[in-house]
Design brief:
The structure is a single chain. The protein contains five helices and four strands. The protein has 152 residues and is an alpha+beta fold. The protein has a single domain, classed as VSR Endonuclease (Endonuclease, Chain A, 3-Layer(aba) Sandwich), CATH 3.40.960. It has a four-stranded mixed β-sheet with strand order 1-2-3-4, sandwiched between helices. α4 (96-119) links the parallel β3 (71-76) and β4 (123-128). The longest helix has 24 residues, at 96-119. The radius of gyration is 20 Å and the shape is globular. The relative contact order is 0.16. Residues 3-12 have low confidence and may be disordered.
């Protein structure tokens, strides 16, 4: 007995969720106040450093801005900003052309913001989401990169 014809819409769609369910999930992904951002803020605060959040007057709206140090920190999600050599930075196999295009635009925007900030005299640091999984190691890195200001 022959197998029933496969539903082409489900055969073509590798995603387990319907487009509506996927859209709802994607809409719930935050761009600010993410768990990795909160971890970085806690670590920086523990170092006794003060910062401002998402200054809109700076290219790329950096996550943390240390004005007197002319230093900014971007906290990047490994998937959304395509962290090289990180398992979370892989491109999904379903709807691959869409994801390649979208994620390439994100990395191009990141590069443009970094270059613009550097041209303005800012030092740009990037903290990846996977780095926040080992807070002790990350705090040592931040302490090394953000030394206390010399008294005036």
């Amino acid at each position: 007995m022959p197998a029933p014809p496969a539903d082409p819409s489900s055969a073509e769609r590798l995603d387990r969720l319907t487009p509506e369910e996927r859209s709802r999930n994607m809409a719930r992904i935050r761009s600010h106040n993410t768990k990795p951002e909160k971890i970085v803020r806690q670590l920086v605060t523990a170092l006794g450093l003060r910062y401002r959040l998402q200054r809109r007057d700076l290219p790329g709206k950096p996550d943390l801005v240390f004005g007197p140090r002319r230093t900014v920190i971007f906290v990047h999600g490994c998937f959304w900003h395509q962290h090289a050599h990180c398992p979370a930075g892989r491109i999904p196999t379903g709807n691959r052309p869409f994801w390649e295009s979208k994620l390439a635009r994100n990395t191009q925007r990141d590069t443009a913001a970094k270059l613009a900030l550097q041209r303005l005299g800012w030092r740009v640091l990037t903290v990846w989401e996977c780095e926040t999984k080992t807070p002790g190691k990350l705090q040592k890195r931040l302490a090394r990169l953000l030394p206390p200001l010399a008294p005036e």
